[in-house]
Write a structure and sequence with these properties.
This protein has 156 residues and is mainly β. The protein has one domain: PK beta-barrel domain-like (M1 Pyruvate Kinase, Domain 3), CATH 2.40.33.20. The protein contains one helix and eleven strands. The strands form two sheets. The chain has a seven-stranded mixed β-barrel with strand order 1-6-5-9-8-7-11. It has a three-stranded antiparallel β-sheet with strand order 4-3-10, with no helix packed on it.
């Protein structure tokens, strides 16, 4: 069973990103979104940032004041096994096709969403399976809240 788009998030740079109902995903990223620091964020291999609503919920259960869009993810997805969202996997989201490229490196600007500022709680190196993921755009397309999100395998 496919997952779905819980929330689409954009900002004029920085965090948190705010929810929009729909957006166009192009090779350069999500329409209406930009990154203040384009050295560490954005670009073709980091065009879209993904995160799991279930991971966010688990972090909230630990007491962290995190919420969808807080950490700068463009797409908050739900209903997917987050451990399967890994580099090389293709993901249909709405009309777009994305390829997961790598885990993100946690940014100090996310310290505000974690108890004692411990934003390394979402570090893939320290806590595998709890990180946001970056994706490149294989096929551009429109995505809306509630659209299906389906893992379709690894690109060869």
């Amino acid at each position: 069973m496919p997952g779905s788009v819980h929330q689409i998030n954009v900002s004029n740079g920085g965090v948190p990103k705010l929810a929009v109902e729909e957006a166009f995903i192009s090779m350069s990223g999500v329409s209406g979104d930009r990154q203040a620091d384009q050295v560490h964020h954005g670009g073709p291999e980091r065009a879209v940032c993904l995160y799991s609503r279930e991971v966010i919920d688990a972090l909230r259960a630990e007491g962290h004041p995190i919420f969808a869009g807080a950490t700068g993810e463009n797409l908050t997805l739900e209903g997917l096994d987050w451990n399967e969202v890994r580099p090389g996997v293709l993901l249909h989201v709405g009309a777009a096709l994305l390829e997961v490229t790598r885990a993100t490196t946690p940014c100090y600007k996310n310290a505000q969403w974690f108890i004692d500022g411990r934003f390394d709680r979402m570090s893939d190196q320290k806590h595998p399976g709890w990180s946001r993921m970056y994706a490149r755009v294989v096929v551009e397309g429109r995505v809306a809240t509630g659209d299906p999100a389906l893992l379709v395998g690894e690109e060869e």
